[in-house]
Structures are given as C-alpha cells and as structure tokens.
C-alpha cells in the first residue's frame, strides 16, 4: 500500500481565550496528578563518587535517617567497581524506591587514568537500557524500573589545596551525563577560614576547566530565593555520622571528639542541612526532570544519530521517522542484494576455479593412466617375448635331447655288433 500525502493546514499561533459560564472541573487535574503519583510511588537514584574512606555510606545513612547496612570497601581493588543497592522507603503515605550506586575502589589505584571509565560506562548503560525499553514494540515504561542516575554526589577530599586532577577529569566527563553536585567530605577536619578559601578555589577551578555542575533552578518563584542562596554555598561542606549524642534534652546525630561535639544537623557546624534541603526536600523532582529531559535526551539524540536517524534530510528539510526508516530499509535491502550478487559472483568464480582444477587433475590422471597402460603393454610384450624365447629354448632343448638319446642308442647297437663278431 503506497503512502498517502495528507496536507495539514497550519495552526493559528494566536490562541483564543474563552470565559467559562460555569464550573467544569478540570481544576482538579493537579489533585488527580498528585493522587496518581502517590499511588505509583517515586524513583530516585543517587550515585556517590569519591575515594574510599571519605564517608559516602555514612552520609547516605544520615541523609535518609536510616541504616543501609553497607559493607566497608577495601583499598586494594585493582579496578573501579560499581555496586547498586535498591531500597523501598516510605514516609507518611509516600513510597520511594531509592537506588544508591557506590563507586568501590575509586581513586585507590596507582594509575588513575581510567578511573572514570567504569562510571561513564555504567551511566551510559542505564540510558541504553531505558532507550531499548522505549524502542520496544510492546513496551511497559510504567512498570519498568528506571535506573538512570538522577543525582551524582561527588565527594572531594578535604585537603584545602584545591581539586585533584582525577576530580576535574571525572566531573568533566560526567557533567553532560548526570547532575553533578560536588561536596566536601569530612568538613570537620578543616577550619572555617580554610574551608571558605577551599570552596572559592574549587569553584574557580571548576569554572576555569569548563566543568558544568548542577545548579538549583531559579525560574520557579516559590523556590527562586532559597535556590539562589544555596547556589552560592556550593560545594557543600558536609559531615555524616551514624552515632547519636545527647545534646540538651534530645538525641542528635553527631561526632564526638575530645575537644567537643560536631552536630551533623547544626548549620553552624556544616552544610548537611542545606544539602538535604536542596537534594531531597526542594529539588528532587527537578533533578529527575533534568535527567529525563536533558541528559537522557542528549544521549538518545546521539544514539539515534549513530543508528542513522535524523530530523532533517540531506537538503536540511524536515523528515519523519518513518521516511528515515523506509530509506534505511531500502538502503539495507540494496546492500543485502549487492552482497548477495557479490557472493553469487564469488561462488561462480570459485566453481569455475574448482572445475578447472578438477579438469587439470583429470587430465593428469588420464596422462598417468596412459603412461601406466603403455608401461604395462611394454612389460607384457617383454614377458611374451621372454616366454616365446623360453619356449623356443625348451623346444630346442628337447630336440637336442632326443637327438643325443638317438645318437647314444645307435652307438650302443654298433658296440654290441662288434662284440658278437669276435
């Protein structure tokens, strides 16, 4: 069936605003959306990147106020491995499927040149899995477990001297694939004055090297002011703890030192509360949206272009997905036909070569047979001649034998006659 071209009239860009004469009810759509979302639950995936021992697992326990029972990692792994653990959390009537991906062994190798490769491959693999599910004929995106990374917490070692080369290289490789949020780990090991200088140095190095970190959105009026303020606090200097210490009349997460107590949720001690506010309570949905609409779309665009699909043709005119598919299918069939013709020609050539080889072999066999036949005839003739000669010799022998016998008999008779006369 040939495709039919249907001309669609252009839409009028000027929309008409109409006034309702009574209540219709579509003002309940936000409530319906909230109800549906709560019923389906939410998915959020966090990747923690940082050297072993920087407190990644402890910070996750502190952020979600639970114990994920993670296993400590050794410093002796030869390569970087990524381990993903998924948990079901519920707060009030909201269910959250949380996946935490840890980079085990990151930064522990002597040669750190390819430390980022396993991380990039993992993020791309999650995008690829979602793309393959999306391209299926019978797809089930509502039931599909979305494993794309929504937030990447990059833990910076609190050296006070700036970023390491591995930090800059890794964040540069990831900034177009995931929402990167740099944080200074174990901020209680550095003084406040040094911390502010360290933050300024990190921001300057990120800008000088063209690393684009995640910025909290300021286009929403409800969170514009707080997000603008929080963007100036990045990178967050955080502390994590699984221990609870009594301060006054309540138990709080804290780290106990001989010189005093560092409270995790005390904003004068660290930026943990700011990080939790920005990551979970204010911008979690924005990070999910940016992952889908920006990072995944960029990956999807590149992959479809690699497959040969495009929105425009060679003349830069709009082209539909179906037209591209039909063109690729036609080219594919032509290539198959060309390969088939080449194989057929190759087969014919090989058959002719084989026939020539067989004919040459047959010719050699005939020549060999004729030679053997001639040799056999000559040998037979020699044998016949030898036999005839032998027969002649036998006849001659018998003739002479008979002659000698006759001569012997005559001589004996003559001898007897002479004896009688005497």
From TrEMBL:
Q: Which residues are in the Septin-type G domain?
A: 40-306
Read off the Pfam families from this record: Septin
Q: Which region ranges are annotated with the description Disordered? A: 403-422
Which residues fall in a compositionally biased region of kind Polar residues? 403-413
- One annotated GO molecular function: GTP binding
Indicate whether GTP-binding appears among the record's keywords.
yes
Q: Which PROSITE patterns match?
A: G_SEPTIN
Keywords of the record, alphabetical order, are: GTP-binding, Nucleotide-binding
Q: By what name is this protein known?
A: Septin
Which species does the entry assign this protein to?
Tenebrio molitor (Yellow mealworm beetle)
């Amino acid at each position: 069936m040939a495709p039919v071209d249907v001309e669609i009239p252009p839409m009028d860009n000027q929309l008409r605003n109409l006034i309702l004469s009574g209540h219709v009810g579509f003002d309940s759509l936000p409530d319906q959306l909230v109800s549906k979302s709560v019923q389906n639950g939410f998915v959020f995936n966090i990747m923690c990147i940082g050297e072993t021992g920087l407190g990644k697992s402890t910070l996750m326990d502190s952020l979600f106020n639970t114990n994920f029972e993670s296993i400590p990692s050794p410093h002796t792994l030869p390569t970087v491995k990524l381990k993903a653990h998924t948990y079901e959390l519920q707060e009030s009537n909201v269910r959250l499927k949380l996946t935490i991906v840890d980079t085990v062994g990151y930064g522990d190798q002597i040669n750190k040149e390819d430390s980022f490769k396993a991380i990039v491959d993992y993020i791309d693999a999650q995008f690829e899995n979602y793309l393959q599910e999306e391209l299926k004929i019978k797809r089930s995106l509502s039931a599909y477990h979305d494993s794309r990374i929504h937030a990447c917490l990059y833990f910076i070692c609190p050296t006070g001297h700036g970023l390491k080369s591995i930090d800059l290289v890794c964040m540069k490789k990831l900034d177009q694939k995931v929402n990167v949020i740099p944080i200074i780990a174990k901020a209680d090991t550095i003084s406040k004055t040094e911390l502010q200088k360290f933050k300024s140095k990190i921001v300057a190095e990120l800008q000088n090297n063209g690393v684009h970190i995640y910025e909290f959105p300021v286009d929403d009026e409800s969170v514009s002011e707080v997000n603008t303020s929080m963007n100036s606090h990045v990178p967050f200097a955080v502390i994590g703890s699984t221990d609870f210490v009594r301060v006054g009349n309540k138990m709080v997460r804290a780290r106990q030192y001989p010189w005093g107590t560092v409270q995790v949720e005390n904003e004068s001690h660290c930026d943990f509360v700011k990080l939790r506010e920005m990551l979970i309570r204010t911008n979690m949905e924005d990070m999910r949206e940016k992952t889908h609409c920006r990072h995944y779309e960029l990956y999807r665009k590149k992959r479809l272009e690699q497959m040969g699909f495009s929105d425009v043709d060679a003349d830069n005119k709009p082209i539909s997905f179906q037209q591209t598919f039909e063109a690729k299918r036609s080219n594919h069939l032509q290539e198959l036909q060309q390969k088939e013709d080449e194989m057929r020609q190759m087969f014919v050539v090989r058959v002719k070569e084989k026939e020539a080889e067989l004919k040459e072999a047959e010719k050699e066999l005939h020549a060999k047979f004729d030679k053997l036949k001639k040799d056999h005839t000559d040998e037979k003739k020699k044998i016949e001649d030898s036999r005839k000669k032998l027969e002649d010799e036998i006849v001659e022998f018998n003739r002479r034998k008979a002659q000698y016998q006759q001569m012997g008999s005559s001589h004996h008779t003559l001898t007897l006659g002479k004896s009688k006369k005497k």
